[in-house]
Batch of 2 targets.
Target 1
Amino acid sequence: MARIGVFVCWCGENISRTVDVDRVVQEVAKLPGVRCAINYRYMCSDPGQTMIRERIALEKLDGVVVASCSPHMHLRTFRKAAQTAGLNPYMLEIANIREHCSWVHPDRDEATAKAIDLIRLAVAKVKNNHPLEPIKVPVTRRALVVGGGVAGIQAALDIADAGYEVVMVEREPSIGGKMAGLSETFPTLDCSQCILTPRMVDVGQHPRIKLYTYSEVEAVDGFVGNFKITIRQKARYVDVTRCTGCGECSSACPLKKNKSEFDLGMGTRSAIYMPFPQAVPARPVIDKNVCAKLTRNKCGVCAKKCAAGAINYEDEDKLVKEKVGAVVLATGFKLYDIGKKDGKIAGYGEYGYGKYKDVIDSLQFERLVSASGPTNGEIKRPSDGKTPKNVVFISCVGSRDNAKGLPYCSKICCMYTAKHTMLYKHKVHDGQAHVFYMDIRSAGKNYDEFVRRAIEQDGAMYYRGRVSKITEQNGKLIVRGADTLAGVPVTIEADLVVLAAAMRPADGVTELAQKLNVGYDEFGFLLESHPKLRPVETNTAGVYICGAAQAPKDIPESVAQASAAASKVQITLAASKLTRSPEIARINEKTCAACFRCYETCPYHAIEKAEVRTRKGVLVKRTARVNVGLCMGCGTCVSACLSKSADIEGFTEQEIYAMVESLI
Amino acid sequence: MNLGYYPGCSLHGSSDDYQQSLKACFDALGVSLKELDDWICCGATAAHTLNRKLSIALPARNLALASQQGCEELVAPCSMCSMQLKKAQKAMAKDAALAEEMGRIVEAQPNDTHVLNLLQAFDRVGLETIKAAVKEPLKDLKVACYYGCLLTRPPEVVGFDDCEQPVSMDKVVEALGATAVAWNYKTECCGAGMTLASEETVLDLSHKILADAAAHGAQCIAVACPMCNVNLDMKQSVIEARYGVKYGMTIYYLCDLVGLALGLTPKTLGINRHFVARKA
């Protein structure tokens, strides 16, 4: 005979106002198997918990029902209390008589009757419960960081400095990401390269960071603590161990007029190139689509010039495997390709981006003002190299536009546009910057002051309104827009137009997210587990996110989030074994018919196809088996199973039927 | 190919030359146009500024007629007409109650007749068909393709071509052997019906269009809307007098150019009825 204790909480007046807790106790005490029923004003308080602990010992209870608030609130609290009293925590159940009863029902009699029913259900379940033990999984104490931008760099350095090994994968030839291409950063105007490149060097030289550049994550296997990562190292045609980074090869390369990716098409590079002089690793790569040797088997100058013999035209993609315990996704962003069709958006033909050479996007402008840029930091417009005397900046190109763009705010454009006007004024003293904006969003430490400085000290003209059309006449860009505060149309003859294009997630991030079972929103930004309380976790255990891959954000925020992700990784890696909830699926291998419907339906790829063999290795049967490291206990397999071999521990069909029966 | 034909008030009135050209051109292309029997006004600007229901009921009536007369594709050469017909269709597709109410008001159920403006009609005939039918290529002719405001807008209603940088008319013109010049005022407003309320506005806007076309080397402007033609052709001498310039810019309906390339005479196409004499 079961020995169940029922503890009914008043929740101050939250429950007792509507539910007659005394009558509840009288009624449930009569249920078969219930040894004691008690009510108390605050069951979650220290005296309340003590009461539960004492009763468990005194009455030798083998099951407990607490009738109180939602299990989301205090299930863990009460299970911990039960455990200290020596009861298996999974022998305690909650009957939610607050959210499901007292808060939503006005009638006292009806609410009381319902509370009694809810407790009856819980008692029926707990009678069918059996003790469960937490699952322990081993941990590979290394982390993978995908993406070598400022967020990835911060996360990798934090984890490595804490003593764990880090594998960093970056798909470009160098780490540094978008920040390496920026000029100066708001709100302090400190030089982007000066603050970033030392961090890049730290990554390159860190004894615990293994760097794979020009590489991508090909496949992911395994689960928290035990990920197996396959990395594709793209053929670089340069042996990075032999190469000294002297640069003789790119100086000698005859094919110099290729658009530089790093300069966003505003500058050129040779076929064998380092993306920028401060690249980490400081090793070149050959563009196989351009190189004369690789495309036509002519030339070969770089190999002749290379004293170290590092050039290898026979190089091929390599697949390498790495084992890690946790993963940080820091894949960053790209700018909306203005005017190009991209999913639902294809607007802004009116700005003539791609048609007029002097209409550029904000990242291109960063290269124009950057000391390391194609013009060495002199602001010259792309069409004829003249210094622009009137520059128009248009914000929200693609952002906050339900009609033909994206509904969200890209968050950083107001700030960098203000910065652009300042940098421009500091370099072209007789120039005039004009900004068309919808709203100025400058929330942040010293941010609004910064925008005011752009307007008040550096004289940027701000027009609240949109631009309707840009046309070209006699070498000038005719920008027609509205000043909605003055209520007049505005026409500006500009020499250069800079479009603050919307931030979008980097290419390929959704495919990567699918490999890791990480969610993403309709725009492709990675989904956090909880927007407030679990901002860097994902719904896949052991996978964390940071930076602009999660949502548009600036450098300080990306760095802060990266450190947060790194600290979560350290928590995961700190334990030698990971404890997971045992409330997951189990499969009865004796009755499993090996149809593998569960294998097909499992959203977490937690079902394995296994074979049962005798000691001599003779195949007895094939069966589905649950990977306890991966299973999230969703129960999809249970509903898919035709032979009723799948069940969820702590929520078995037997337990649920018992609950239903108790009501009939 | 058989297509339904909704002339609207313009093509039966002030822009009778447009109808003449359209019929001759499509006839030469082997497309027969069957005029909708008993059609009524599309509502144009007047209806939708005064009464939303009226602005949907009027096109709905025409769509219902098309449905009753078994017309699956309906050419509405006036860009205002085609836009109003499509707008009504879209509004009814989105709102079942409205569609039902309109069915009651017009005493018939409008169906999903495919409405085509002139650009879409040529697209439907097919560039290859047009190219193959060309007898006298318009070599050395530089054309400014003028789309105006309604041929591509609102984009969610028209759903054809890029509303800001359209190319569909340019493609037709190129198929005829002519050159479509790159210019700035492809989709600017000509002033349309403002001529009644404020002629100055129309003169100013249309002048800018003529000036930009001329500045970019166009010898003529192609239009696909009766209202654009009125403002650029009929008002051209007034514009020239007012701004002290001389353009003499021939304004063609797009079907004029197609017709010429197919070997039809300007007289057959009614080009001799335009205000600005044809020089190129």
Note: Chain B has 15 helices and eight strands.
Target 2
Amino acid sequence: MKTVNTILVLVAAFVAVFLEAAVGTRGLLGAQLDLLPVIIVYASLYAGLGGMTLVAVLGGLAFDSLSANRLGVSMLPLFLIGFVIHRKQELILRDQLYAQFILGLAACGTAPLLTLLLLYTTGATPAIGWGSLWQWLVMTLGGGLLTPVCFRMFGRLNRTFFYQPEMVTSFRPDRQIRRGRH
Amino acid sequence: MFKKPHFIALAIVLVLTVIALNLPGGPAARLKHAMGGLFLPLFGLADSTRTITTEATERLLPRSELIRQNEDFRKENQQLRIQLLQAEAVTRENDRLHQLLAWQARAPWKLKLARVVLREPANWWRTVTIDVGSRDGIRKDMPVLTPDGLVGRVDSVSLTQSRVVLLGDRNCKVSVRVQNQAGDVGVILAPDSIVDSSLVELSYLSRSAVLEAGQDVYTSGLGGVFPKGIPVGKIEDFHTVEYDLYTKARVRLAANLSSLDEVWVLLP
């Protein structure tokens, strides 16, 4: 199941990158929403370490191939975000809406900052100004809001493609203790 | 601190990042184009969807609306033909004067129509991808424009697609001339603030430049990348920089860069 889940997440990352470049939200919001950190949050909690690493590497490369970024610059920030979440996954209430929102918020706020840091390290000169603050806010908030939606979408896809495990309870009707007169 | 798989994954990604970032220009560009090639099925799908939507819209348009549009286009076509006749007469006169003065005549522009297929997914660059590449004769640094004005220049070229770096990006600097009496020359640079994408910065103007809001700005032809006379925009406002070294102005671009659908590539 984890393999198929990883494939689903990889396909979603691939389509997300294409949609970001083909449709775009810059005309509407003044900033382009980034869906890859949202997908990385999901992958780190549900696709295992290998799946998350694959999504970070291939998703990052796909993003850079359609962007003017230097190839490979988006891989490490995505991986680091997924890595931290994956290491703390036992402490995260992954089914709670607010937890998903906060994770998305943190991931989408951190990813552009780490990418810019790496870009500056490589000597690139991206266009940054006061308007970037607005873009960062839109990316962070948008990512936070989209994360629960993304979790619901993957949840539905999982229910479509996989048999759900039968719930086994400790309750047995033949062992029921009946009290009172019979 | 880390479990072994964590350590291995981190090491793999670190090594891959270092390798990718240190790739020389040629192999990195080829790898980028190869990765971009993975999106070709999605390009096809998007193209088909666009065609179907256009056809559906055309079928839904009432006949009376089509006739009205046709009539409008006919009138516009006639006006443009008259303007063309006038422009041809001016060109002939210009050529004759060039010959009289023994100046080299300017070659007419050869243009190639291209459709914008992708926009920049990262917020810190201003680029678009167009659907013409090296097989269509596109080369690096060719100017790209719309009927309204200059858009940018071709930055990288693959077989079927090219990336255009737009005005306002740090990698697109253009030498321009202000249409005033002195014909002041400056350089279009990325703006300090990126709140309004239709504004760019015009820098290195002479400190004695006589500027006014609304003055037209055209490419100067200096630098060898952009030919002379392509409209760029209009002066919005201006100020002298510290210690009166030179004058800076903001230019509102003539072309609307946020809604580019079709552009023209200027071939040599």
Note: The two ends of chain A are 49 Å apart (CA to CA).
